[in-house]
Specification:
The structure holds three protein chains of three kinds. By secondary structure, chain A is α+β, with helices and mostly antiparallel strands. Chain A has helices at residues 13-22, 35-41, 56-59, 78-82, 85-90, 92-98, 104-109, 112-117, 126-131, 174-177, 231-237, 242-253, 267-288; strands spanning 4-9, 27-29, 47-51, 62-64, 70-72, 135-140, 143-148, 153-155, 158-159, 166-172, 181-187, 198-206, 213-221, 228-229. The model of chain A has no long low-confidence stretch (mean pLDDT 97). Chain B is built from 19 helices and 27 strands. In chain B, helix 14 (495-507) runs parallel beside helix 15 (536-562) and helix 17 crosses helix 18 (730-742). The longest helix of chain B has 27 residues, at 536-562. In chain B, a hairpin with a 4-residue loop joins strand 25 (617-629) and strand 26 (634-645). Helix content of chain C is 34%, strand content 16%. Chain C starts with a strand and ends with a helix. Classes of the chains: A alpha+beta, B alpha+beta, C alpha+beta. Chains B and C meet through helix 1 and helix 17 of B and helix 2, helix 3, helix 4 and helix 5 of C.
Chain lengths: 293, 766, 161
């Protein structure tokens, strides 16, 4: 039994927005895998909830827009992302990242929208979405607006959702994935049921001869308070032959990151992982792109 | 033969259908819910408590605090009681404590109509503390001026032990003389182990109510008869006025060889008029407020002659006891004794141990009882010596291992059987030791492989350190089958199945005709101290054998009445047969006669006690092949095998399964598990199953279990300890494999990634 | 506050009053007496409370009962065949000695039901991943994997015929 003051089950997105306006203290609950745990811990005990859990018709599923943008309903579960044909054909790295969250039961319940909205740096899909420069479409009483993911994360556990706003779509523009291959490394102590000590997502676009890095995106989880890109590492590898890029990307990334020491892992250890895993992620991404490395 | 058969578990069908009832499955509804208030300091006093708001909350039935409980200190470990005061367990806690000794200590309890109300009420209790500094390590607690955690022990040392074996040969007077003699190669080492937890998947829940003026507690325990005694002691009431019921339990591993919240729950029901109270212990409370494995640090030294014979060793162990004595010094005493016993010292051995109170959650019994700790020290040290001297690590161990016929000079425990050397050979052959050692020597590069091993010895039960006693009861049913009733407990290990096999063997009937009563109810179950110390197949097994033979004799005696002229009566294929093998009467018909005969009606039963006054050593080893990803500190165990000499196997398939579980626990101990604390506040940081790294199915390689069966002459069926041993040798085997792969000797556990990266940085590999 | 939950549990329609604050594990255990659904952590970390909701294994401790409206729920109690025989998966667990204390068993069996029901065959490593949402302290997962593998293979043979 959860210590919940009230729970309103919304019948549509607009109904959920109205419910949030009616009770400004209420929290949105989707898959429940984060919110219920916080209620039990006592952090959110006694809260009021607006449940969007059952709005799957409106908010779940992955589709391809006519222009080739990938549109992910935020209520799509991790599992739904991983097994989506659209994801497999367009951004398989995102499906692979989603497949590393928790364990199978959690992936069947937890949603990609929740993973993005909780604003946690270790969120398994976050670093890949950051690398992809995803766009987050939110809807509030005044309608919809698009937020680039680079402006989404405001601090630990804080995102750019205004009061009464809901995330309604995660968009990966075609230009951001077409021609790129990606690889995500979740570094954790366990191979399942764990949170990342470090998450590294690397996208790479190779030149036609598959020998040189045409463009690259490198993003981290747990390398700072929020998921982050590594712009100097990206700049450092652009135009380099792949092996050279692999050789420099780790050190270059250190200029971009700011991991902290917690009881889970020290800053020094995380830096070692960033330096070591960035080239590994680039190598795998390039290999997937057809490079002989 | 019933013993030696791989039959399915007698409880398997009930467990796969969900019919098997565990404590909470039996709880009546509605029930009053209890919740415990835990201190937010780790060391100090509760000066005052204001419960008025909590008491006023609708739905709260009662708020009880450390100011209300009986002024009785009681012991909690699951040891047999001793009638000699000097051997009794340390009584150092009350039901709720004003003197706060750990972060999260139990200081008040709420009984409410539902759990949400109970938790809301806890938040309304105002507590005023007097706060002392916090010591999580023995050095801090023993420092001059650190306040006594228990006033009975002003220096915070619970106990010290100093044991020297008689010195052999006339040349040296003391072990220290040998350890400073230039005649021998001299070695020193320092090894440390960490605090880990059992992580049985069922938390230790209980519910309690009163009936006919007596208290009933239904609880998830390994030791129902001991729980009954301790509740009596804690409440200051007659032990006969308490009834403890133990249903199926979701694992114990030693944590439930401790009396946990049962006394508090028993007391709470008495405070609410005997109404049923459930005390549902959360996972977080299980981590913080129940037992764990002691962190122990070892300083060791050895003198070795040039051909690799151990001449003398010294071992000093300091055990971190946390805030309460629990099993106290018994664990570290077992550790230094186990350290000594595995190998023979030609001249002598000196062991010192001390147990120190600190402000950590109190460790207690956990699978292996101090031996996984000492085995890490022992087997790392042996490896380091062999490496330094250029000795073959297998031959070095075999040469010095406990010989057959060894008699411990202090407790007299005798090596009645050993196949340790054969286990080592079998393990080496399985893993391909010689080839892998050759293949993996002198590697370079960031990813390297290695192979390592470790061996162990382990005694069977607690004799003669403590009492070993067990009773069994057998009752004939009208259809010729038998009820088997024991005080020994099934805790997941398969006890009920092998007990049934043993009874069948002793009586001469198929195991299918033995119906074991799985639940223990102290009102009706025969006395047995319970599941711990890998004792039950040995100690309870002896009771089963004795009673089975008595029961068989009664059946044959009744048959003799029916067939006065028959010779050589025996039991054959569910019948009484004569010496020629001719079947005279089925056991079912014999039973009907015995029940309903108008001439001589007798209800054939047998019940007896076996006071076990023997012990024996089990042995085994672990071999592991690893791959080390040096730059990121990851150790992957590629292959692993445990080989055990546990005497004769009662049920080989279940024995194998038992070994798998122990190996898994050993892998967690080696690589990932560790309770972490905030050094300032003493708060446990990772007391949940996300942050405490219990291995998942993806974290293990295939687990291989092999055996070398001996027939132990002291065992009831040639058998000896198996329950705990599989967890023992894994961590040092993995550590030694990492050493072979990288040349880096890791001397503290766990070998978690950050720790390994730091070790590799120190070793110049990163 | 009581709400009416209508759903299908173990192949039977169910209509019961629930407190909207209840987890599905609470409802199944305490209102429907389906005590195979175990609680080991209550935060979705141990997997002991796993049940199938519309065919997918989820942790019922972090799933609100109000979400189960109209859904189909399966627990271990619903697995035996009509005359009470064990299902092939249950039999595999018995015969492979995959059961020890038994507390994680019903949950893992429910994941196995989904795995076997997929009709696919899996490598040993894939099976490890598919059961990685369950913690077991007794078995090292070894015989559990053997049992799941056996059940998958048996079902595949059956489908293949």
């Amino acid at each position: 039994m959860y210590d919940i003051q009230s729970i309103y089950q919304a019948t549509s997105v607009d109904d959920a927005i109205r419910a949030l306006q009616a009770d400004p203290s209420a929290l949105v609950i989707a898959g429940g895998t984060d919110v219920l745990i916080k209620i039990r811990e006592g952090k959110l005990a006694g809260c009021s909830l607006v449940s969007i859990h059952n709005l799957t018709g409106e908010l779940s599923g992955v589709t391809l827009s006519p222009g080739g943008d990938v549109e992910i309903g935020p209520l799509t579960t991790f599992r739904g992302v991983t097994f989506s044909d659209v994801i497999r054909q367009t951004v398989p790295v995102l499906g692979e990242a989603a497949d590393m969250a928790g364990g199978p039961q959690l992936r069947a319940a937890g949603t990609i929208g929740g993973n993005v909205c909780n604003g946690i740096t270790s969120a398994d899909t976050a670093s890949t979405l950051v690398a992809l420069d995803a766009v987050l479409r939110v809807r509030g009483p005044k309608g919809e607006r698009d937020v680039p993911i680079s402006e989404w994360y405001q601090g630990v556990g804080r995102v750019a959702l205004a009061p009464y706003e809901l995330l309604v779509k995660i968009i990966i523009p075609r230009d951001n994935y077409a021609g790129y291959t990606g690889h995500y490394i979740k570094y954790a102590q366990r191979a399942a049921m764990d949170i990342a000590t470090l998450g590294v997502s690397c996208l790479v676009k190779l030149t036609d001869d598959k020998k040189t890095v045409d463009d690259a995106a490198l993003a981290f989880g747990v390398a700072g308070p929020v998921p982050m890109r590594a712009p100097s590492a990206e700049a450092a590898v652009r135009g380099l032959p792949i092996e050279e890029a692999i050789a420099v990307i780790g050190k270059a990334a250190l200029a971009d990151v700011n991991p902290r020491t917690s009881w889970r892992a020290s800053k020094e250890f995380r830096i070692q992982l960033i330096e070591e895993l960035s080239p590994r992620a680039l190598r795998e991404a390039a290999r997937k792109g057809g490079a002989d490395v | 033969m019933e013993v030696g058969r791989s039959i399915p578990r007698v409880d398997a069908a009930d467990k796969v259908t969900g019919r098997a009832k565990y404590t909470d499955d039996l709880c009546p509804h509605p029930v009053l819910e209890a919740a415990v208030l835990h201190s937010t300091i780790a060391n100090g006093w509760v000066k005052s408590m204001d419960i008025s708001e909590a008491q006023a909350l609708p739905g709260v039935v009662k708020v009880l605090t450390c100011f209300d409980v009986p002024d009785i200190q009681y012991p909690t470990p699951g040891h047999p009681w001793s009638v000699e005061a000097a051997h009794q367990d340390v009584a150092d806690r009350k039901l709720l404590n004003r003197r706060v000794r750990i972060y999260g200590d139990d200081i008040a309890a709420v009984v409410a109509e539902d759990l949400i109300t109970a938790h809301r009420a806890l938040k309304l209790i105002r507590v005023e503390y007097e706060e002392y500094p916090v010591a999580l390590e023995p050095e801090g607690a023993m420092a001059e001026g650190f306040p006594p955690i228990h006033e009975e022990h002003p220096d915070n040392v619970l106990a010290r032990m100093d044991l020297r074996t008689p010195i052999r040969g006339g040349e040296f007077e003391t072990v220290e003389d040998v350890l400073s003699s230039p005649k021998f190669r001299q070695f020193q080492g320092h090894y440390e182990t960490q605090q880990v937890q059992h992580c049985h998947i069922e938390n230790p829940v209980s519910f309690a109510y009163m009936e006919s003026g007596r208290i009933t507690v239904v609880t998830s325990t390994q030791i129902p008869h001991i729980v009954r005694r301790v509740i009596g002691q804690a409440l200051g009431i007659g032990w006969g006025s308490i009834r403890v019921v133990k249903p199926y339990i979701g694992g114990g591993f030693g944590n439930k060889q401790e009396v946990l919240y049962e006394p508090l729950n028993a007391w709470l029901t008495t405070q609410v008029g005997g109404r049923c109270v459930r005390l549902d212990v959360s996972r977080e409370e299980t981590f913080q407020n129940t037992r764990s494995r002691h962190p122990i640090s070892f300083d060791v030294a050895a003198a070795v002659d040039e051909d690799g014979t151990l001449m003398a060793r010294y071992c000093k162990a300091v055990s971190n006891q946390g805030g309460y004595a629990s099993h106290g010094n018994a664990i570290v005493a077992n550790a230094v004794t186990g350290y000594r016993q595995l190998y023979l010292d030609q001249i002598g051995h000196h062991a010192q141990a001390l147990t120190v109170y600190t402000n950590r959650p109190a460790p207690g019994a956990m699978r292996g009882y101090g031996i996984p700790q000492c085995n890490f020290a022992s087997e790392c040290f042996m490896e380091d010596i062999a490496r330094e001297m250029g000795l073959d690590p297998l031959e070095f161990r075999k040469k010095n291992a406990m010989p057959l016929g060894y008699v411990d000079p202090f407790n007299g425990i005798t090596c009645h059987s050993t196949a340790l050397r054969e286990c080592i050979d079998k393990g080496a052959a399985y893993i391909g030791w010689d080839e892998l050692r050759e293949k993996y020597k002198n590697q370079t590069g960031p990813v390297r492989r290695g192979v390592g091993m470790a061996c162990f010895s382990y005694k069977t039960g607690v004799y003669p350190i403590s009492l070993e006693t067990s009773s069994a009861r057998m009752v004939l049913n009208q259809d010729g089958t038998v009820q088997l009733h024991l005080g020994a407990t099934e805790i997941g290990q398969g006890g009920d199945t092998v007990f049934s096999q043993m009874a069948a063997q002793a009586i001469g009937i198929p195991t299918e005709d033995v119906h074991i009563i799985s639940f223990q109810d102290t009102d009706t179950a025969p006395f047995d101290t319970g599941a711990y110390a890998s004792r039950q197949t040995y100690v309870t097994g002896k009771a089963i054998k004795k009673v089975g033979e008595e029961f068989r004799a009664k059946l044959l005696s009744y048959a003799a009445e029916l067939f006065p002229d028959a010779d050589g009566l025996t039991i054959l294929h569910r019948h009484i047969a004569d010496g020629s093998g001719e079947k005279l009467i089925s056991l079912a018909d014999l039973a009907l006669n015995a029940f309903y005969s108008l001439e001589h009606s007798v209800h054939i039963t047998a019940e007896d006690t076996n006071h076990c006054k023997d012990n024996t050593f089990a042995f085994g080893c672990c071999f592991a092949e690893v791959e080390v990803d040096i730059p990121v500190g990851k150790i992957k165990v590629l292959r692993i095998v445990n080989v055990h000499d546990s005497g004769r196997l009662i049920n080989p398939q279940l024995a194998e399964a038992q070994v798998h579980g122990g190996m898994s626990m050993g892998l967690g101990y080696a690589l990932s598990e560790e309770m972490k604390f905030d050094p300032k506040t003493g708060r446990l940081l990772n007391g949940n199953l996300l942050d405490y790294k219990l291995p998942t199915a993806m974290d293990h390689p295939e687990l291989k279990a092999l055996f070398v069966e001996t027939v132990d002459p002291s065992g009831p069926f040639g058998n000896k300890a198996l329950g705990e041993p599989p967890a023992i040798p894994v961590a040092p085997a993995v550590r030694n494999a990492v050493l072979y792969a990288t040349g880096v000797a890791v001397n503290s556990l766990p070998m978690s990634p950050q720790h390994m990266v730091e070790e590799f940085q120190r070793g110049g590999l990163i | 506050m009581i709400e009416i939950l209508r759903c299908t549990v173990n192949n039977k329609p169910v209509e019961i009053g629930i407190d909207p604050r209840e987890s599905l594990a609470d409802t199944l255990r305490e209102r429907l007496g389906l005590t195979s659904v175990k609680k080991g952590c209550e935060v979705g970390e141990c997997g002991a409370c796993t049940v199938l909701v519309d065919g997918e294994a989820i942790d019922s401790c972090i799933y609100l009962s109000v979400w189960a409206q109209g859904k189909t729920i399966l627990t271990v109690e619903g697995l035996q065949d009509p005359d009470g025989g064990l299902s092939p998966i249950q039999r595999a667990f018995v015969e492979e000695a995959a059961v020890q204390c038994g507390f994680c068993t019903p949950g893992i069996i429910m994941s196995a039901v989904e795995i076997v029901g997929s009709g696919k065959q899996y490598t040993r490593d894939e099976l490890r991943k598919l059961i990685s949402g369950h913690l077991c302290r007794c078995t090292g997962y070894q015989n559990i994997l053997n049992a799941v593998e056996r059940a998958v293979n048996e079902a595949h043979k059956f489908v293949g015929k």
